[in-house]
Design brief:
Residues 236-309 form the CEP76/DRC7 peptidase-like domain. Residues 1-23, 321-345 are annotated as: Disordered. The protein has 809 residues and is an alpha+beta fold. The chain has 17 helices and 22 strands. Among the domains are: 418-504 and 516-643, no CATH class; 649-682; 685-804, no CATH class. Helix 15 runs antiparallel to helix 16.
């Protein structure tokens, strides 16, 4: 280390001496050369370089007040129309008016921010903001209402923060000019050992930072909550104002174009308004926004509150009360005001932008390329166009636990056009709980399905649309040992059924639940109040204890009582071990009655009640078994639906609906054939032969016979020619097939698999053509005599050949 240090000191001393010599030589050169040359050839030492760097860092470059511009890398300006690249004389006049208006505004209101009047467009041409708007009526009913239109615009837009959040401008990128003279960097004299020690120290620091990551995140969250926003109220934002009055709008409200949400003008998030504009005029807010936008009056015709730029015929009228309106009665003043307006009025030029054209594909795609990703704090929202994903996924919201968005908490997925009516899927990554939400129309009337696994006899909750089910089932909850069902609107007033199971003695596959159902231990059923029965005879709850062979009943409580009647039956077999019939005894029924009655104490009544309960117990066990089978069927159906994830396609969607397309093509083919058939029937078969005779001359008997014979002979020859043509094509196809088969027999050994596939494909197509030609030939032979007889009959009945009818009369 001693030697290294001495060597470094020697090198530094030599470098200082060399720098001193250069500085002395530079001073002598300054006296001999011009100032400009001396500045270019000045050589800086290391100390001078540090001083220069320090001075340059202290200089603050002011932001130039240039007009906003767009970058050209994303827009091909060569394809834009002329209106984008130049200004008309009227637009130039408007820009001069805007500049004059801006100067007056800056002089009268020096404390307010400059107006946003004429930014540069894509071609770097200044355009007034009102001329960038062009009202267009689109052929889509979804865009006629503000909510669906705002949602469409928000899906298409992508938010990009401004470089300067305080000014609505996009600065041009300054080109870095190449430097003619460069400074040689100083020599690196750092020690490698010190660098290695520094690397080790950095690794230790990173390890400590990883251990304290959670604590730092918590502190960061607290700091974010407590830290005030230094730019609160200074950021620039634009949104849409909808005024009340037209199209049944009851009150004014705002629309945020990036989210598509509406907000009241009393919302505290909107701190103030600088200016408004539409396609007709430009207004400046002259009201104080100390209370946000709550106290603003949006009467654009009031020049005291809203200063307008253009004095034209399209400016808004001032809303006056009856008292103010009664004060304006002087007709001369009105005429003078009208003359002043005519002198100073200036109409807004037509918009320079092209008319908005949205194709059906672009309207359906909405987001750019059909997909849009929006990143939020601890959340990410993804959107897709309908039918872009094969499973119908249109939106996904992912919520994260940390700020880096690495640990997922939950996922929500929205679907459209699903045949299984799946609308929403909610996945909780913490509990691994999945919840599916369905629209009405599912084959099993599903509404909600919550589960952790698709295996049967696991924890799940299934909710149904009760109006679509006959049994009135609303919800079914299932675990490994229980099943609970809730009902509504049943004729037997059943509202609740709970079944307890015990493990199977022999473990079988889960798919064998149909053949080996779970043993039932207990069934509990509850009922709504039946107003047709007295409360002491209307059962509120009954419990079938199958393992203990007992049945418990609890009746509804009367309004004037504080307790309800109860009854318990000991269910025994009907015969004993010897085959003797068991007789009903008093100890087989234990009851508590609030108001005892004589007929309930009789053994016959108790025996009939117990026999009825036995039948009900058997029916309840069967219904529980059917419920298990229904769960298996639902799970099997859901697995098939998730594997297929088929989508529904409207019959009016001619692009995707293959069945509708095939049906439409078949109908067009039938209509075309029908048209050809009508054209054939409308042909005049005697026209070529009648053209040989003088026009207007009446046919003689001999001429009529000759025309008939010539027409039939010509038609017969046409039939023969058609048959010969079909026969010739048939023979040609047969010969080509034979030649191909002979070629295959000769070269069968040397053929490759591709050649064999081509040969088989050719043979298949050739056999198909031969079969079709054979069918056409046979059909022609069958129909030719019939067509000949039909033509002969038409000739006999033709009024132009009336002489033939006289011959055969």
């Amino acid at each position: 280390m001693e030697v290294l240090r001495e060597k470094v000191e020697e090198e530094e001393e030599a470098e200082r001496e060399e720098a001193a010599e250069r500085a002395e030589w530079a001073r002598t050169e300054k006296m001999m050369r011009p100032v400009e040359v001396r500045k270019e050839e000045t050589t800086l030492t290391q100390e001078m370089l540090r001083d220069l760097e320090k001075k340059l860092s202290e200089i603050q470059i002011p932001i130039s007040a240039e007009l906003p511009a767009f970058t050209k890398d994303t827009i091909d300006i060569s394809k834009l129309p002329v209106s984008y690249k130049t200004n008309t004389p009227k637009e130039e006049h408007l820009l001069q008016v805007a500049d004059n208006f801006s100067r007056q505004y800056s002089h009268l209101c020096p404390d307010r921010v400059p107006l946003f009047l004429h930014p540069l467009n894509e071609c770097e041409v200044p355009k007034f903001v009102s001329t960038t708007l062009r009202p267009t009526l689109m052929p889509y009913p979804e865009l006629y209402n503000w909510d669906s239109c705002a949602q469409f615009v928000s899906d298409f837009l992508t938010m990009v923060p401004l470089p300067d959040p305080l000014k609505p401008t996009v600065q041009k990128e300054e080109k870095v000019l190449p430097k003619k003279y460069t400074i040689r960097p100083p020599r690196d004299l750092c020690s490698r050992f010190e660098q290695e020690q520094e690397v080790k120290k950095q690794q230790e620091i990173r390890a400590q930072e990883k251990k304290q990551l959670r604590e730092e995140e918590e502190r960061l969250m607290e700091a974010e909550k407590a830290k005030p926003d230094a730019l609160h109220g200074l950021r620039v934002h634009s949104w849409v104002l909808v005024l009340s009055g037209k199209r049944e709008v009851p009150e004014n409200f705002f629309i945020d174009a990036f989210t598509g949400h509406s907000y009241s003008t009393q919302d505290e998030r909107f701190l103030g308004i600088e200016s408004l504009w539409n396609h007709k005029n430009y207004w400046i807010n002259m009201q104080d926004c100390w209370n946000c936008c709550k106290d603003l009056i949006f009467d654009l015709g009031d020049p005291v509150r809203w200063e307008y730029m253009l004095l034209g015929t399209d400016k808004s009228q001032l809303s006056l009360t009856e008292e103010d309106d009664s004060g304006i009665n002087d007709e001369d003043d009105v005429e003078n005001l009208g003359k002043e307006d005519e002198d100073k009025s200036f109409d807004m030029p037509h918009s320079w932008v092209e008319q908005i054209e949205i194709s059906p594909e672009a309207f359906e795609t909405r987001c750019p390329n059909g997909k849009k990703v929006i990143q939020y704090k601890r959340a990410k929202l993804e959107k897709w166009a309908p039918y872009l994903n094969s499973n119908g996924l249109v939106s996904r919201l992912t919520t994260y636990e940390d700020l880096e968005c690495t640990n997922i908490l939950e996922i929500k997925e929205w679907y459209q056009n699903r045949e299984d009516m799946l609308e929403l899927k909610h996945i909780n990554k913490t509990t691994d709980l999945k919840t599916d939400y369905f629209k009405p129309g599912h084959p099993q009337a599903l509404r909600v399905h919550s589960y952790k696994s698709m295996q049967p006899e696991m924890d799940r909750v299934i909710e149904f649309y009760e109006m679509a089910r006959v049994d009135g089932l609303i919800k079914r909850e299932e675990t490994a040992r229980t099943m609970t069902e809730y009902y509504q609107g049943r004729p037997d007033f059943l509202s609740y059924r709970h079944a307890n199971f015990r493990p199977r003695v022999k473990k079988l596959a889960l798919s064998s639940a149909e053949s080996n159902p779970r043993p039932i231990v207990k069934i509990t059923e509850q009922f709504f109040r039946n107003p047709a029965k007295p409360a002491e005879e209307d059962v509120a709850e009954r419990v079938f204890l199958l393992a203990e062979e007992r049945i418990q009943l609890r009746y509804h409580c009367r309004d004037d009582h504080i307790t309800a009647s109860k009854r318990e039956f000991l269910r025994r077999t009907e015969v004993d071990s010897k085959g003797n019939k068991i007789i009903m005894t008093p100890d087989m029924c234990i009851s508590f009655e609030v108001e005892p009655m004589e007929h309930t104490k009789k053994l016959l009544y108790q025996y009939e009640a117990m026999m009825h309960l036995k039948r009900e117990e058997k029916l309840s066990r069967h219904q529980v078994w059917e419920s298990e089978l229904e769960v298996l069927e639902i799970l099997k159906l859901r697995e098939e639906e998730e594997a297929a994830h088929a989508l529904t396609i409207s019959i009016y969607d001619t692009k995707r609906n293959e069945k509708s397309k095939e049906y439409r093509e078949a109908m067009e083919r039938v209509m075309h054939e029908e048209h050809l058939r009508q054209v054939e029937t409308q042909l005049d078969y005697l026209a070529p032969f009648l053209a040989q005779l003088p026009p207007g001359e009446k046919l003689t008997r001999w001429q009529a016979v000759r025309l008939k014979d010539e027409c039939l002979s010509d038609f017969k020859q046409r039939l023969i020619n058609k048959a010969n043509l079909i026969q010739a094509r048939f023979e040609k196809e047969t010969q080509e097939l034979q030649k191909k088969q002979q070629w295959y027999q000769e070269n069968q050994v040397t053929l490759t698999p591709e050649d064999e596939d081509l040969y088989l494909s050719y043979c298949s197509q050739a056999m198909f053509r031969i079969r079709i030609l054979e069918q056409r030939l046979n059909r022609h032979k069958e129909l030719a005599p019939l067509k000949y007889l039909a033509l002969e009959e038409k000739l006999y009945k033709d009024p132009r050949l009336g002489e033939l009818q006289k011959i055969f009369a």
